TrEMBL record:
Entry's localization field: Membrane
Molecular-function GO terms, alphabetical: calcium channel activity; calcium, potassium:sodium antiporter activity
Record's protein name: Calcium/sodium antiporter
Residue ranges of every copy of the Sodium/calcium exchanger membrane region domain listed in the record: 3-142, 175-315
Predominant location: membrane
Organism: Aerophototrophica crusticola
Any GO BP: intracellular calcium ion homeostasis
NCBIfam families noted in UniProt: calcium/sodium antiporter
Keyword Ion transport included in the entry's annotation: no
InterPro entries according to UniProt: K/Na/Ca-exchanger, NaCa_Exmemb, NCX_ion-bd_dom_sf
Top-level taxon in the UniProt lineage: Bacteria
UniProt cross-references to Gene3D superfamilies, sorted A to Z: NCX, central ion-binding region, NCX, peripheral helical region
CC terms in the record's Gene Ontology section: plasma membrane
Membrane association type: Multi-pass membrane protein
Length: 328
């Protein structure tokens, strides 16, 4: 039953995230909100909602390892697994202008995460700071994009917005679909986190290990679907923008909101290993993108190989540290 709950949670997260994005985009377009801001806010928050709900739910349940492991593990999976799959299918193109700005913010958010993690505790003041920085980033991007040419107005955001809205969806239908998606995400996250905690107890492994692997990949399913479909349809810029935007939201928005709701004590494994992996792969992504203006198929396979190695190390850590199991 526990494994069925986890599977059901993953399915509800995936379906709920899709419905939430579709409904939110439809509502925004009916209200006359620009495609740029749809991409920055509704689509970005929509695909990151599973991570948000799962982390908050885990923090309230007293599982800081799952809450933080979900954020850190999702960022690692987004780059190594999801972008790796996308690039292996089709080279992922990168726009130099957004890369300078968003790549810098990505690295800045990763460095902030490292700094706060090393303090051993992420409290409400830090959470408030992260959320404030996210809002400032959105305002900055909005103002900078308003001065850009129409062709440069984040083609990725326009494409996501166009592909996310079902034909003929009106304002009321959009609200209903978005509400249904949010409900599915909340219920799915509860099933997933509850099941993950039970698995950690049964297997005698830490909740951090479960958080950075099972929960992280599960809550990244909306990004996986969006990025892979974008790659298949030869919209590599959508795939790249989706990953970078989601990772920025994960640190500033999800970790920030989670800390505001429930302050977190940083698990030792995350402080000593996972947060450094997140920083390294973020730098690797920027280097790959900057050197050639795209993520090639070869680089996609390199990212996937690194993720396989990361999972292998996680399994080894779990096997060597049974004493860190979730307390009953």
């Amino acid at each position: 039953m526990v494994y069925l709950a986890i599977l059901g949670g993953l399915v509800l997260l995936l379906a709920g995230g899709e419905l939430l994005v579709r409904g939110a985009v439809a509502v925004a377009k009916r209200l006359g909100v620009s495609p740029l801001m749809i991409g920055l806010t509704l689509v970005g928050f929509g695909t990151s909602t599973p991570e948000l709900v799962a982390s908050v739910d885990a923090a309230l349940a007293g599982s800081a390892g799952i809450a933080m492991g979900n954020v850190v593990g999702s960022n690692i999976a987004n780059i190594l697994l999801i972008l790796g799959i996308s690039a292996a299918l089709m080279p992922v193109t990168v726009l130099k202008g957004p890369l300078k700005r968003d790549g810098a913010v990505l690295m800045g958010s990763a460095l902030l995460a490292v700094g706060f993690t090393l303090t051993g505790h992420i409290g409400r003041p830090v959470g408030a700071l992260l959320v404030a920085l996210l809002l400032a980033y959105i305002v900055w991007v909005y103002r900078s994009e308003r001065t850009a040419s129409a062709e440069e107005l984040h083609q990725a955001d326009d494409t996501v917005a166009e592909k996310s809205e079902p034909p003929g969806m009106g304002l009321l239908a959009g609200l209903v679909v978005a509400a249904a998606g949010l409900g599915s995400v909340v219920f799915g996250a509860d099933l997933l986190v509850g099941g993950a905690i039970e698995v950690a107890k049964t297997w005698g492994v830490s909740d951090t290990l479960i958080g950075v692997t099972l929960v992280a990949v599960g809550t990244s399913m909306p990004e996986l679907v969006t990025s892979v479909m974008a790659a298949v349809r030869k919209h590599g810029d959508v795939a790249f923008g989706n990953i970078v935007g989601s990772n920025i939201y994960n640190v500033m928005g999800i970790l920030g909101v989670t800390a505001l709701v429930q302050p977190l004590d940083v698990p030792a494994q995350i402080a000593s290993f996972d947060i450094w992996v997140m920083l390294a792969v973020s730098a690797l992504l920027v280097i790959f993108a900057w050197t050639s203006g795209r993520i090639s198929r070869r680089e996609g396979w390199i990212l996937l190989a690194f993720y396989a190695a990361y999972i292998a190390v996680q399994i080894q850590i779990g096997a060597m540290a049974p004493a860190e199991a979730v307390p009953g």
